[in-house]
Design brief:
It contains 14 helices and 11 strands. By secondary structure, it is an alpha/beta fold. The strands form 4 sheets. The protein has a 5-stranded parallel β-sheet with strand order 2-5-8-1-9. The protein has a two-stranded antiparallel ribbon with strand order 3-4. It comes from Candidatus Promineifilum breve.
Length: 321
């Protein structure tokens, strides 16, 4: 079968095991966890945006602990420099030569905590790493370990002391996800779970880097019919033609939506993509990449409103008789 790995298990089984491990710490939020799993399978980067205290950092650390990958966390602040991320060359007096001291970007998973508190200069240091999986320091280029995933948390830009991320960097995040507040039952369950100990302290990894890379390669075999592929293209192109949009979805966004749909099909045990995959993922993959006209924003319409409208308007492919 297409979604069967070398050890005989399916991607859906692996994803379910990983989901259950994450839910030992995170109460509920199954939809958010699934979106994070999709990002991992696409080797895409994940932007978690919400107000403080909703569990963004905890979710990112829980995902990192569940994956058997090297992990680094960086607290982004206004005085953080690009070299604090990439590393530096220093002169080793004992060896009498310059040596490279790698920064936290050389890890397989980087948690960029409160990324929008750093200046645009520092934020831009991530551009090459996120797209090309390499960093350039001075004149030397260093490949990053694979798989490579940036999980960034961000407070809404209306809060004081933050900087909006540049469009070029937003376009490199596969999707943006908001956690939201838990419901009443979930908040009670959270208090019970964390009453005596923090379950994150004893959480063990349930998958290794080789398995992750095998799954990332396998999802590319998920079948996408021509009509569904055209539907993905039509949805993305519709954002560029919309009167309320100043900057529509890029070709990178089209590829991101295509790959994310393959991953969603795989974790749900399917060997093919359906239109519902596109409808479900389009708001998460496209919204943060769009720039609306100033007049549109003054009328209270946001990019997510436009994406929902586009998804509702673009014709959905149907199976022919």
């Amino acid at each position: 079968m297409t979604n069967t790995l070398m050890d005989g298990t399916s991607i859906a089984d692996k994803a379910n095991h990983l989901r259950e491990n994450i839910q030992k710490v995170i109460v509920g939020k199954t939809d958010v966890i699934d979106l994070a799993l999709i990002a991992i399978l696409c080797e895409g980067h994940l932007l978690l945006e919400d107000v403080p205290g909703t569990g963004k950092t905890t979710l990112a650390k829980t995902i990192a602990a569940s994956l058997g990958c090297s992990f680094r966390r960086v607290q982004f602040t206004p005085d953080l420099l690009p070299s604090d991320l990439t590393g530096i060359y220093y002169f080793n007096q004992k060896a009498q030569e310059f040596e490279f001291r790698p920064g936290p970007l050389m890890a397989q998973i980087l948690l960029a905590d409160e990324i929008n508190r750093a200046t645009p200069r520092t934020q831009s240091a991530l551009l090459e790493a996120m797209q090309e999986r390499q960093i350039t320091v001075d004149i030397a280029t260093h490949p990053l370990p694979r798989p490579f995933l940036v999980m960034a948390t961000q407070n809404p830009i209306e809060l004081e002391g933050t900087f909006p991320l540049p469009e070029a960097q937003l376009d490199r995040f596969l999707m943006k996800v908001a956690l939201g507040y838990p419901d009443e039952a979930g908040e009670n369950a959270m208090l019970n779970r964390f009453e005596r100990t923090d379950p994150l302290d004893t959480l063990e990894s349930v998958i290794d880097p080789a398995e992750i890379m095998a799954m990332q390669q396998q999802i590319r075999s998920v079948r996408v019919e021509n009509s569904v592929r055209q539907y993905i293209v039509n949805v993305c192109r519709a954002t560029r033609l919309h009167d309320d949009i100043l900057l529509g979805a890029s070709p990178r966004a089209t590829m991101a939506l295509y790959r994310a749909c393959q991953a969603r099909a795989a974790i749900n045990g399917r060997e093919f993509v359906i239109p519902d995959d596109v409808k479900e993922l389009a708001p998460h993959v496209l919204t943060h990449r769009l720039v609306v006209n100033p007049q549109t924003r003054l009328r209270g319409r946001l990019p997510e409103d436009v994406v929902r409208e586009v998804v509702n308007v673009v014709a959905v492919p149907v199976e022919s008789a």
